[in-house]
Design brief:
The chain has helices at 2-14, 192-203, 439-466; strands at residues 22-27, 30-34, 38-40, 45-52, 60-61, 68-82, 85-98, 102-106, 109-113, 116-120, 123-128, 155-160, 171-180, 186-189, 208-212, 219-225, 228-242, 248-250, 254-260, 266-272, 276-278, 294-295, 297-303, 307-309, 314-322, 340-354, 357-370, 374-377, 383-388, 393-398, 402-406. With 467 residues, it is mainly beta. It folds into three domains: 1-130, Immunoglobulin-like (Sandwich); 147-282, no CATH class; 294-428, no CATH class. A hairpin with a 4-residue loop joins strand 29 and strand 30 (393-398). The N and C termini lie far apart (100 Å).
C-alpha cells in the first residue's frame, strides 16, 4: 500500500505535464523515441517505439546500455478518433536504471523491431545524484521458515507478495538468487540462458492472467533478511490475476550455479526453492463479479474550464490508475443527454511496472458540449466501479468536478461549428435565396416534364380511340 501511495505522489506531480521524450527515428510506420537525457540516480532513462496495432504483437529486442541495467518493459494501446476513423497504436517502453551518477556516453544503439534495425545516433546522458525518499524504502522481505539464514549461505527463492488474493486481485511472483554480502564463495552463473526459461515454465501458474515485467537480464538489488544484508539476483518477475478459486501450486525448482573450489575447478552447486501455495479468496456475490478490476485505484482528472457558455466545447481528461487488471474497464463512451453532449476523442490503456508492482492506467479525453444552462455534477456522468481489496467490497470512483453553464438553450438550433471543413459547416447561416441554380439540371428537369406530359396525352388519345 505504501508503494501505491508513493507512486501516486509522483503521478500527481507530473501526470499532465508535456512529455520529455525526443523523437529519434521513424521507419515504415514505426516511431522510435528516447527519453530525457538529464536524470537523477533515482529516475530511469527510457527507450520506446510505437507501431500500428495489429492482431499479432511485434517481436522486439531493446539494446543493452553500459552503465545502466534494464528494468521492466511497459506497453500501452491507444485509440484515437481522427475524421471519424479509428487509429490504434501500440507503444513499448524499456526502462533503464543508472548504476551511479556521472556523464554516460551512449554509443550507436540498435533497436530490433520485427527484424528491422533502427539505429539511434550516439548521445550523452547526464545522471546527477538523487535523494531516495525514505517512505519508498521497501520493507524487509519475509522468507519461508524452511530457509536457514544462520549459515550465511546463498539460497534460491520463488515467492509471492500476496498469499491470499481475491479472485481477480494481483499477486506478483519473483524468482531470485540471494547471496549474503559477506559471502566468501566464488560463485558464477551456469547457462542461465537455458535453465532460467525452463524454470519459468515450471513455476508459471495456470488459470491466471499474466502481466510480465520482461526482465531480459538479471536485476541486481540490495535487500535484508533478519537484519542481514543480501544481494538479490532477480531472474523473473510477473504479476498474475487469478481467474477462479482453484489453488495455485508453485512447485519447488532447482537452480544450478558454479562454485570455484580450492583446486580452482568450478563445481556445480544446486539450490532448491521451497514449494508453496497461493489460495485465492472468493468475492461477494455480485452482478459485476469478474467484469470489473480488483485492486486499489485512484482517479486523476482535469478539465480546461469549469465555467462555459452553451455550445462552447470543453475538454475533459481522466486517468484511472491502480494495480488491478485494467483490461476489464468498461470501454463504452459516456451517453449524451438533453443537457450535455459527449464525444470521446481518444482512449488509452497502458500497463507499466513501478518498483515491485505492475500498474494499469485507463486514460480518456472527452469533448463536452453543453446544451442547456445550469450546474452539472460530472459524477453523474463519469464514474468507474471496481472491487476495493482494502474494504473487501465494490467501490466507485466518481468525478469531483462541477460544471457551470450559462447561455441560451441549444436544443432546437442547428450548429455545425465543429465540422472544421466539413461540407455542412456553417450551413445554418446560409441564405437559401443566394443559392445559384445549375442551368443544365433545370433544363433537363423541364424536358423530362414535357416528355411526361406528352406521354400522358398519347395515352389519353389511345384510350379515346378505343372507345
Amino acid at each position: 500500500m505504501r508503494y501505491f501511495l508513493s507512486f501516486l505522489t509522483i503521478l500527481y506531480a507530473g501526470l499532465f505535464l508535456p512529455s520529455a521524450i525526443i523523437l529519434g527515428q521513424t521507419k515504415e510506420n514505426v516511431v522510435v523515441q528516447t527519453g530525457a537525457k538529464n536524470i537523477a540516480t533515482t529516475e530511469q532513462f527510457s527507450l520506446q517505439f510505437s507501431i500500428a496495432a495489429t492482431e499479432q504483437l511485434p517481436n522486439y529486442r531493446f539494446p543493452e546500455i553500459n552503465g545502466f541495467r534494464k528494468l521492466g518493459v511497459s506497453r500501452s494501446k491507444a485509440t484515437n478518433f481522427e475524421n471519424e476513423q479509428v487509429v490504434q497504436t501500440l507503444t513499448f517502453i524499456q526502462y533503464y536504471q543508472p548504476n551511479g551518477p556521472g556523464n554516460v556516453l551512449v554509443p550507436l544503439l540498435e533497436l530490433d523491431v520485427n527484424k528491422q534495425i533502427f539505429k539511434i545516433d550516439p548521445f550523452v546522458i547526464q545522471v546527477v545524484p538523487g535523494v531516495e525518499n525514505q517512505d519508498e524504502i521497501p520493507n524487509e522481505i519475509q522468507v519461508p521458515a524452511t530457509v536457514d539464514l544462520a549459515n550465511n549461505k546463498p539460497f534460491f527463492l520463488v515467492r509471492s507478495d500476496v498469499a491470499r488474493p481475491f479472485v481477480g486481485q494481483s499477486f506478483t511472483l519473483t524468482m531470485s538468487l540471494y547471496v549474503p554480502s559477506n559471502n566468501t564463495l566464488d560463485l558464477s552463473f551456469d547457462r542461465n540462458d537455458i535453465q532460467i526459461p525452463a524454470l519459468i515454465q515450471q513455476i508459471r501458474p495456470h488459470n491466471c492472467w499474466e502481466e510480465n515485467f520482461n526482465l531480459q537480464v538479471e536485476r541486481v538489488l540490495k535487500v535484508t533478511f533478519g537484519g542481514k544484508k543480501y544481494t538479490e539476483y532477480r531472474f523473473f518477475q510477473a504479476t498474475y490475476f487469478p481467474l477462479d478459486l482453484h489453488r495455485i501450486q508453485i512447485p519447488s525448482v532447482r537452480l544450478r550455479i558454479l562454485q570455484k573450489g580450492k583446486s580452482k575447478e568450478k563445481m556445480p552447486l544446486f539450490l532448491n526453492s521451497p514449494a508453496f501455495v497461493v489460495r485465492p479468496k472468493p468475492m461477494p456475490t455480485h452482478a459485476l463479479s469478474g467484469k470489473v478490476p480488483v485492486g486499489r485505484y485512484t482517479l486523476v482528472e482535469e478539465i480546461d474550464k469549469t465555467m462555459a457558455q452553451t455550445g462552447e466545447p470543453i475538454i475533459y481528461r481522466s486517468k484511472v490508475i491502480g494495480d488491478g487488471n485494467s483490461i476489464l474497464w468498461d470501454s463504452k463512451s459516456v451517453a449524451s443527454d438533453y443537457f450535455l453532449s459527449f464525444n470521446l476523442l481518444s482512449t488509452e490503456r497502458s500497463v507499466f511496472p513501478y518498483r515491485d508492482q505492475m500498474f494499469g492506467n485507463k486514460s480518456d479525453i472527452v469533448r463536452i458540449i453543453p446544451e442547456q444552462a445550469g450546474k452539472f455534477v460530472l459524477a453523474n456522468y463519469f464514474n468507474w466501479v471496481y472491487f476495493n481489496v482494502d474494504k473487501a467490497r465494490f467501490d466507485t470512483l466518481r468525478s469531483k468536478i462541477v460544471l457551470t453553464v450559462k447561455g441560451q438553450p441549444r436544443d432546437k438550433k442547428l450548429d455545425t461549428s465543429l465540422e472544421k471543413g466539413g461540407i455542412y459547416e456553417s450551413i445554418e447561416r446560409k441564405d437559401s435565396l443566394e443559392v445559384q441554380w445549375n442551368r443544365w439540371v433545370n433544363w433537363r428537369q423541364l424536358v423530362n416534364f414535357v416528355l411526361i406530359v406528352m406521354f400522358g396525352f398519347i395515352v389519353f388519345l389511345s384510350w379515346r380511340a378505343l372507345k
